[in-house]
């Protein structure tokens, strides 16, 4: 997560975001959905570099670069532009993004890339990540960008801009599986079908989050992903994937992450997660399958 300086080239990792829970509490009058989500991050991610003092641009490469869409629409450039609108004479530069995370999979790859861009620009310009202009640029860039900025486990609320202090999680190991098709966030929320002003729940207290593994799994079982049913209604294969993950040896919990098609299985033991990833990757070579540790 920490940017490093090497011959004037700054580098940062944009880790995958995992929504361990995702409760949709209601829909505001302005159409935005209010949520509560326990979010953590993985040891996997995209790589972003910045060459300060060169013409501002973005080059995208890597195994999932094709999925990232047009460069002009990339959130790295959007975040940089939003910060430049708020910081006079902001020093920019050339970004190089290596995409390793699948797009549209619910892992927040684009949001994490944007957060990495803001961290790199903050370093170049001597800005603190607590600078309110960075926070404003982050939330304007996208709902998931604020929680990705620090990359630590937190509970996020509101539309993503209200963050709890960092939370302590027990050691967790995961297998992430991208089945090869995206799910559009807009389509999933539309299928959920909340009308403006409709409420379906209230936020919990941060103190309710257990720090031990068994207690955490009980908490996760009681707080699922409210977007799973509408996602499965759109793409039944998501439900089939979750059922498959639950049958893996050593799996403690399996569900969908965020609003995308990527699903995850949690394990207590890293070897069990690695073995499960090998099994799935061998039997489904077209899937994106990765074993990873989750941030604590």
UniProtKB/TrEMBL annotation:
Pathway: Isoprenoid biosynthesis; isopentenyl diphosphate biosynthesis via DXP pathway; isopentenyl diphosphate from 1-deoxy-D-xylulose 5-phosphate: step 3/6. Residues 213-277 form the GHMP kinase C-terminal domain. ATP binds at residues 102-112. The keyword Aminoacyl-tRNA synthetase does not apply. SUPFAM superfamilies: GHMP Kinase, C-terminal domain, Ribosomal protein S5 domain 2-like. It comes from the Bacteria. Belongs to the GHMP kinase family. IspE subfamily. This is 4-diphosphocytidyl-2-C-methyl-D-erythritol kinase. It comes from Rhodoplanes tepidamans (Rhodoplanes cryptolactis). The gene is ispE.
């Amino acid at each position: 997560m920490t940017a490093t300086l090497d011959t004037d080239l700054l580098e940062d990792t944009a880790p995958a975001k995992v929504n361990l829970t995702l409760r949709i509490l209601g829909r505001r009058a302005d159409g935005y959905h209010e949520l509560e989500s326990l979010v953590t991050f993985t040891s996997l991610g995209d790589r972003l570099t910045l060459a300060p003092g060169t013409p501002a641009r973005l080059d995208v490469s890597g195994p999932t670069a094709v999925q990232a869409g047009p460069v002009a629409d990339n959130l790295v450039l959007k975040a940089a532009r939003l910060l430049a609108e708020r910081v006079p004479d902001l020093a920019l530069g050339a970004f190089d993004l290596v995409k390793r995370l699948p797009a549209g999979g619910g892992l927040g790859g684009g949001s994490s890339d944007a957060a990495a861009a803001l961290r790199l620009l903050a370093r170049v310009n001597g800005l603190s990540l607590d600078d309110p202009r960075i926070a404003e640029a982050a939330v304007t860039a996208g709902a998931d960008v604020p929680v990705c900025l620090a990359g630590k486990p937190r509970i996020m609320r509101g539309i993503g801009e209200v963050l709890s202090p960092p939370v302590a999680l027990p050691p967790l190991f995961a297998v992430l599986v991208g089945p090869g098709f995206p799910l559009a966030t807009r389509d999933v929320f539309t299928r959920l079908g909340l009308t403006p002003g409709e409420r379906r729940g209230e936020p919990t207290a941060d103190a309710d989050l257990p720090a031990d593994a068994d207690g955490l799994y009980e908490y996760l079982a009681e707080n699922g992903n409210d977007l799973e049913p509408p996602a499965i209604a759109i793409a039944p294969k998501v439900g089939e994937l979750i059922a498959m993950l639950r049958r893996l040896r050593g799996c403690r919990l399996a569900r969908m992450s965020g609003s995308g098609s990527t699903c995850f299985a949690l394990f207590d033991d890293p070897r069990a997660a690695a073995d499960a990833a090998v099994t799935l990757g061998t039997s489904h070579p077209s899937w994106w399958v990765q074993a990873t540790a989750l941030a604590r």
